[in-house]
Structure formats: structure tokens, C-alpha cells
Write a structure and sequence with these properties.
115 residues, mainly alpha, 63% helix, 0% strand
Length: 115
């Protein structure tokens, strides 16, 4: 479990589960879902991101990696729409902590999988 997530209410989150989900489902989830997830992930790594924002972030990422969600991820075309909604809502809430450095880190990692 990420020590960043410890004790903040997002107990279902772990770095290992996050990276496993991203690697396994990147192409199926699509570039936008993965980019949003990575922006949140890298924003959570910032030391100046407050605990409340990390709680929001890890909650959204926990939903993303959850094996059971509102729309099963194995459903063609629509399986990640609920994940995208949760990630986008979290991004809107913590957008002040998604700076250019975070966006660049996410874009580089996303490009490695999609370009």
C-alpha cells in the first residue's frame, strides 16, 4: 500500500494495484482514462498536495482499480465510462495540484503506451 494512501480513507488503493490495472487495461480504457488516472497519481506524489486532496485522489484511483464497479470494465466501449467520470470529477476537485510538471509526467507515460 502506498504510504501516501495510508490512513486517509482510501484503503482500497495500492500502488501495485494501480500500475497493474493501468498496464493490463491501458489500451481498452483509452488514452483519456489513462491520462486522467496518471495525472491524479502524479499529483498525489507531490509533497505539497494536502491530505484532503490525496484522499480525493486515492478514492478515485481506488474506484478505478476496483474489480467491481458500476459498469464492468470488460464491457466493450462503455466499460470505462464510469471510471472516466470518477477520475474527471476528482481531477476537477484537485486541479490546482495538477501543475505542468504533473501533466508532463502523465503525458510522457501515456505516450509510452499509446504512441
Amino acid at each position: 500500500m502506498s504510504d501516501l494512501a495510508g490512513g486517509n480513507g482510501a484503503d482500497a488503493y495500492s500502488d501495485a494495484s494501480f500500475w497493474n490495472k493501468v498496464k493490463q487495461f491501458a489500451k481498452q480504457a483509452g488514452r483519456e482514462v489513462i491520462d486522467n488516472a496518471l495525472c491524479l497519481y502524479y499529483a498525489a506524489q507531490r509533497p505539497d498536495t494536502p491530505k484532503w486532496a490525496k484522499t480525493v485522489i486515492f478514492g478515485a484511483l481506488a474506484y478505478f482499480i476496483a474489480p467491481i464497479d458500476a459498469i464492468p470494465d470488460l464491457t466493450p466501449f462503455v466499460g470505462f465510462t464510469d471510471d472516466l467520470g470518477a477520475l474527471a470529477a476528482a481531477l476537477a476537485m484537485v486541479s490546482v495540484y495538477v501543475d505542468d510538471n504533473v501533466k508532463n509526467q502523465a503525458a510522457e507515460k501515456t505516450a509510452a503506451w499509446f504512441d
